[in-house]
User: Fold this.
Amino acid sequence: MSPIVGVLISYLAGSIPSAYLAGKARGIDLRKHGSGNLGATNVVRVLGPRIGAAVFIADLLKGFLPVYFLPRYTETLRPELWALLFGAAAIAGHVKPIFLLGKGGGKGVATASGVFLALAFVPMLIAEVMWIIVFYFSRYVSLASLVGAAVLPIAILLWSRNPESLVFIASVVIAVFVFWTHRANIGRLRRGEEHRFVRRESTS
Assistant:
């Protein structure tokens, strides 16, 4: 298989709007409820934790499956490089889904988690544990995501001890990307206006 075809498949997989489909199955356009974001957090807020967990897993798999499987079927001498490109394409699809005309995607955290579970399993688990700890004590999903994104490159560097590793460099890029997609949240955190995650919005 051509690597370019792999990138296209990854982007299309990432573009599957899991949160949007979950909302439509309940007769709701999630872009008009809660935060308006098509991510698992807003699904939990509006539709409840079980549906939110299902959407999170679906979004995670959109990143994990292309990166884990497609390099095995790609005709290239640089499988690690193309695995990273497949991951980047999946994240891009999640943030700018073609099936929604490039509008209304999520912030990419769950899909990026799937990408790095395939690329750096143990460091990603460390980052996920930090996410859980920060969320447990603060109840800020955005803060937990920012901390997890910052911890991931450090964990990869300590694990691999190779600052020239493509996976480490990619983790730094993803961390910057996560901070960029959360720039509004960062502003609200600084002003003390960010909403803590307490309970889902009533839809009755």
